[in-house]
Each structure stands twice: as structure tokens, then as C-alpha cells.
Amino acid sequence: MFGLTPAKSPTPILEGRTILLRPPLKGDSAEWRALREQSRTFLTPWEPQWAADELSERAFRLRLGQWQRDAIAGTAHSFLIVDKSTGCLSGGISVFNIRHGAAESGEIGYWMGEGHAGRGRMGEALALLTDWCFAGLGLRRIVAACIPDNQRSRRVLEKPDSPAKAWCGPICASMAQDGPFAFSLVAPDDAATWTGD
Question: Does the predicted TM-score (pTM) go above 0.90?
Fold first, then answer.
């Protein structure tokens, strides 16, 4: 289920039933940029404002460098969501603001290309990533935030039978009406210890 990339990246490859989560690579630039461009109107209402050069080759290279530095520092791990049957990129998911010590926590962010939404892949990606965060990174709490009007994102987190388990939320109900909701997931007492196998 868990394996390291050939380059021994600190970010592993996580294998699910229908998807792989793997670290982004330089060769992913064209497909990543094309998927984001095709999904622009689907994604931009829910994301920070895109820069003028958001989808340029240079912007991807800079982003990739930051993802790699964050992984080496242990402060974040970014993954691409890849369809196992086709090898096509579907979206992205990351754990960031990783804190150890007393906190043992992190935050999750994710996006799905418009043509891949509604197929259960994000729930599977969340389950894979949270399992690894708990068993592999030793985190005890994961937080995911979403804009209240983003019904698709909320459904992933609120679905009671979601493979992403039972998110407790919203924990920030006192925020402004249009502010984000934050959902929290606490590690189960029986979270396995990840051995890297």
C-alpha cells in the first residue's frame, strides 16, 4: 500500500483501490497545467485568486521546487491523484502545516479536475492520505477547511459512510457566515504504525 518513489523521495506513493497518490514530478507539468486550465471555472470560485502566470511552465517549476523543499523539511507533502486504470491525472491533495511535538497535527487541502469530480476519488484520496498521516507521520489530528458554499467539498467531509472516516465538524461554526468551515479528524486509538513497507 505504501512505497517510496524511485528517487527515495520523503513523500511516498500511496496505492488505493482505484487511484495512486504520488509526488509531482517535472514531467507532470503539461498534464497538470492542462487539467487546471480545463477546470478553471470549476476551481477558481473555491481557491485563492490565480496569478496571471498561474499555469505557466515557470510557475509549475517554482511550485514543484517548493513542494520538494517542504517534503524534505517535513512540513508538507503534496500528491497528485492518478487514476490507476488510465494513468491520467485527476487532481491533487496535500498535507501541510505539519506540526510535531505536542500538536502532532496537519491540515489537508485538495482539488479535483472537473471531469473527474463526483466519482468517489476524493473520498478515496482522503482515506489514503489520512491513514498515512496517522500511521506514517504519527500525526494525531488532521484539519480540512472548506468554503460553506462549496457543496461538493463539504459532502466529501460530511458523508457519514465516507472512506475518509468520520470528520467532526464544523469546528469553526462561530466564524463569519461566509468564512470557511473547518473539519477535524482525530487518529483512531488503533492507528497502525507505518513501517514503510
Answer: no
